[in-house]
Write a structure and sequence with these properties.
Blueprint lengths: L2 E2 L3 H12 L6 E5 L4 H16 L3 E3 L7 E4 L13 H8 L8 H12 L8 E5 L6 H10 L3 E5 L7 H4 L4 E4 L17 E4 L3 E3 L2 E3 L4 H4 L5 E2 L6 H19 L2
Parallel strand pairs: 1-11, 2-3, 2-4, 5-6, 5-7, 7-8, 8-11
Antiparallel strand pairs: 9-10
Helix pairs in contact: 1-8, 2-8, 4-5, 4-8
The protein binds nicotinamide-adenine-dinucleotide.
Length: 238
């Protein structure tokens, strides 16, 4: 029986920690005008309101900023070259929220990472590359597959954990996994107005040992990680 790795309890645990910070600050969200950004923005705004984190429209007023052209001190999604440099040098100020969300999700469900053979599909600076780095820090052995990788299934079939962050619906199919596979779906795609991941959930869940759903998997954990870093930024008063 496949185990479903829901993000909700992970997100709630992170939110509890965030709520303990007395000064939770203000955030500004500067994202492009597209469907996946709109749902991301809505999710951040909803959770921020629950956590008493004010969403402001100007980066000047905010402690933490999500989006482009950011002061590194306020870059709570770790997207500036300076903060990515710190991350890769092993002295992170913040961590990229989605990559860290995957780590938190796996740890919450007691998935051991040291010595595991992990395939990350996707090599963006937002998700794939920083995630591979965080997994290396956990002593996993990491393979990064991407749009130019030939025959991805030869890597995924022998992996303990498969994490897809490609933004391609239906990319990970049942024949690419085995009965011990743990499958984490980062993809947030819109097909006929419906949010779907990269993984063929219906069929992969019949083979794999554990799988995260979309929606309801990595997504809520990402917003919680982001807002915990907003609270950190407000506490540090950078
Ligand atoms: P991106 O487009 O910047 O990068 C996609 C990566 O996938 C690229 O490195 C590319 O080489 C690889 N790729 C594309 N097609 C492929 C294929 N057919 N086979 C193998 N690799 C392929 O996207 P991104 O910003 O890294 O986001 C990836 C996905 O994760 C998107 O669906 C995005 O919406 C989603 N996302 C989700 C969250 C969340 O909280 N759940 C947060 C950020 C991004």
């Amino acid at each position: 029986m496949v185990k479903i790795l829901y993000g909700k309890p992970v997100a709630e645990k992170i939110d509890e920690g965030t709520a303990k910070n007395s000064n939770r600050g203000k955030i500004a969200i500067l994202l492009p005008d597209e469907p996946s950004s709109a749902s991301y923005r809505q999710a951040i705004e909803k959770k921020a309101s629950k956590l008493n984190i004010e969403v402001v429209s100007s980066a000047d007023e905010a402690n933490g900023v999500i989006g482009e052209t950011i002061d590194p001190a306020k870059d709570i999604d770790c997207q500036t070259p300076e903060n990515l440099g710190k991350l890769f040098a092993g002295v992170p100020l913040y961590k990229p929220a989605t990559a860290e969300a995957v780590i938190q999700l796996l740890k919450y469900y007691d998935v051991e990472l040291p010595e595991k053979n992990i395939v990350v599909i996707g090599r963006s600076t937002v998700v794939g590359k920083p995630l591979a780095h965080l997994l290396l820090e956990e002593n996993a052995t990491v393979t990064i597959c991407h749009s130019k990788t030939k025959n991805i299934s030869r890597f995924t079939k022998i992996a303990d954990i498969i994490i897809s962050a490609a933004g391609k619906p239906g990319l990970v199919t049942a024949d690419m996994v085995n009965e011990n596979s743990i499958v984490i779906d980062v993809g947030t795609n819109f097909v006929e107005g419906k949010m779907v991941g990269d993984v063929d959930f219906e069929n992969v869940s019949k083979v794999a040992s554990a799988i995260s759903p979309v929606p309801g998997g990595v997504g809520p954990v990402t917003t919680s990680v982001l807002l915990s870093q907003a609270a950190k930024s407000a506490m540090l008063k950078l």
